[in-house]
Structures are given as structure tokens and as C-alpha cells.
Amino acid sequence: MAGALQDHQRAQLVGVKTFGKGSVQFVFELADHSSIRITHAHWFTPNHNPIHEVGLTPDFVVENDPNQPNNDVQLAKALEILTR
Description:
- Helix content is 19%, strand content 23%.
- The chain is built from 2 helices and 4 strands.
- The chain has helices spanning 2-7, 73-82; strands at 14-15, 23-29, 35-42, 60-61.
- It has a two-stranded parallel sheet.
- β2 and β3 form a beta hairpin.
- The longest helix is centred in the last third of the chain and has 10 residues, at 73-82.
- The radius of gyration is 18 Å and the shape is elongated.
- The two termini are 23 Å apart.
- The mean pLDDT is 95.
């Protein structure tokens, strides 16, 4: 959803680059109780940008400080953008 909104210039992303999990996999158990994982699909944004192993890059890169859990600088930046 975020990639689609960004591609269509309907939203600006704030935060850090996403992990990049953009594939759909099926796991099949075999007769010997081992298994096989088959990639069935990959996700792309509407502009055909891959998500898998690439992730989404925010328009505003903002990292929260894990040592200051009560100071959400990502939320503060998002509110700043919305109230311009």
C-alpha cells in the first residue's frame, strides 16, 4: 500500500527503508518429512519497482532513537508534513 501511494504521489513516506520482503512462498512437506519452499510470486509497486530484497525508500528518512522510546521523531516529522 505504501509503495502504491508513493508511486501515485498520494503520500510521502516517513521513516527508514523497509526490510524488502516482497515474495509469496509455498512450503510443501514431502513424504520423508523434509520440505520444499517454492516462490510463487514477487510484489512490485504500480510503477514496476521491485520490493523483494530492495524495500521501499522513504521520502523523509527519519530514525527513532531506541534509547528514547517516548520521543517518536518519525511521528513528529509526519505531523509536521501534514500540517504544512
